[in-house]
Every structure is written in structure tokens, then in C-alpha cells.
Amino acid sequence: MVSINSNDLIALIAAFVWPFTRILGFIAIAPPFGNNGVPVRVKIALGFFLAMIVAPSIPAIDHVDLVSITGIAVILQQLIIGVAMGFIVRVTFAGVEMAGEMIGLTMGLGFATFYDPQTRGRSSAIAQFLVIITTLIFLSLNVHLAMFEALITSFKSIPISTSLHMGFSPQRLAIWGEEIFKIGMLLSMPIVAALLITNIALGILTRAAPQLNLFGIGFPITITVGFLMLMLILPYLLLPLENMFQHGLNTIHSLGSAPPTIPMKRP
């Protein structure tokens, strides 16, 4: 007959709660599951089933009570680690949103903002369109499966422990924040450059013929050129987005390692 005392029961619950906290923190932030449009019950259920799979393979921490100060500190530690990993994926989509905002402003569609149910905020129509395309590519390439694989692998690279050290480098996470501007500039540069040439041509045209109404012909031309350029670059978005997703997954895998040191240049 199998007998389980209270200490064994508390240890089993703690061995499940700690990975469940990291997984739930990741799901709450990382798109597309972290969007506000996804019901909370779905997020909790997904995190619960993933934790049920992961928990038996994680070595238990001995002599740690779940409701003690040390146990609560471990829970907060796992929550921060999960949120940090989800933040890496979120930055990629934020860079795409930034590219859409830059394209919309340059086209003259900065006023065309709509309510975004995913973020519960307002964003431009171009940004929402690019985010939808990015989400479809994200799912079609099975990046969400690779994302969960990286999350499960993180329990080996960043094991659950009672030390005050977070287990990952905050510097690497801060450096990753610059990817928002890199992705935004990379995706929006062709359209912005084409619209800049269009505006220069319109400026030369109005200089040669001052009687032309710049506001009457300028907006239709810039909007038309913007949509034409957007139509031309859509078939070529797969490769840069795939590289961005791969870069994000590599960052999640290497989050537990120290970031590369940049030598200081002496004046």
C-alpha cells in the first residue's frame, strides 16, 4: 500500500507550481498566446498541461516549503524568468508594429487608427495588417512549437534553485530591446525610401508649377505609392521574418549565458 504524508504532498505540489509559474509567465507575455484576445482560461489550461509534462523531468528542491519566504522567492524568480523569455518574443512583434507605424505616417495614414483588440490600444491600419501577416507566418513556420521547446529547454540552462541569482543575464535582455528599432527600420526602409523619393519629386513638381495644389495631388500619390510598394515587398517578407524569429529563439536559448563583452575604446 502506498502512503503519502503531508511533506511528500507539499513537495509534489511545489515541484509542479514552480515550472507552472515560469510557463504561465511566458504565455502571459509572448504572442500570439499572450494577446488580450486570448481568454485567460485558455492560457491557464495551456500552462497547466505544459507544466504537467515538464514537472516530472525537473529535479525537486529539497527542504523548501512552498509557503515559506524561500518558496515565495522561488515563485517570483520563476515568474520573472518566464516574463523575460516572453519579452524576447514580444519584441519581435513590437518591431513589426513599429515598422507599420512608420510606413503609415510616411504614407499619410497616421490618422487611420483603429482599436486593436490584441493590445487593447489604438494602432494604425498598416501596423495591424503587418502584425496579422507576421502572426500567420509565425504559425505557419511552427515557430510557436520551437518557442515552447526553447521554454522547456530553459529548465536545463536556467534550473530552478533557491539562490538569489536570477539565472539569466539582464544585460542580454536589455541589449535585446534594441531589436525593436532594428526590425522597424529594416522592414520599413524600402517603403520609406520610395515615399521619400516620391515627396522629393512632388516638391520639384510644385516648384516648377506653383499653381498645382500640393495637398490635392500629394496625398493620393503618396498613398498609392505606399500601397504599391507594400504589395511588392509582401512576397519578400518571409526571409527577414524567419531570420528574426530564429534570432529570437537563439536569444532564448542563450539567455542563461553571459553576454559578450564589448571592449572599451580609449580616446
What are the segments in which pLDDT stays under 50 over at least 5 consecutive residues? 259-267
Number of helices: 9
- Tell me, what's the shape? elongated
What oligomeric state best describes the polypeptide chains here?
single chain
* Rg on CA atoms, Å: 24 Å
What structural class do the secondary elements suggest? mainly alpha
Write down how many β-strands occur, each being a DSSP E stretch of 2 or more residues.
2
Distance between the termini: 75 Å
Membrane topology: Multi-pass membrane protein
Subcellular location: Cell membrane; Bacterial flagellum basal body
Pfam family, one: Bac_export_1
Function: Role in flagellar biosynthesis.
Describe this structure as you would to a colleague:
The chain starts with 5 loop residues before the first helix and ends in a 14-residue tail after the last helix. By secondary structure, it is mainly α. It is 68% helix and 3% strand. Mean pLDDT is 81; it is low at 259-267. It has helices at residues 6-29, 40-54, 69-107, 125-140, 143-157, 170-176, 179-208, 214-233, 238-253, and strands at residues 113-116, 121-124. Strands 1-2 form a two-stranded antiparallel ribbon. The chain is elongated, with a radius of gyration of 24 Å. The longest helix has 39 residues, at 69-107. The protein has nine helices and two strands, in the order αααββαααααα. α3 crosses α4 (125-140). It has one domain (6-253). Pfam families: Bac_export_1. It is a multi-pass membrane protein. Role in flagellar biosynthesis. It is found in: Cell membrane; Bacterial flagellum basal body. Belongs to the FliR/MopE/SpaR family.
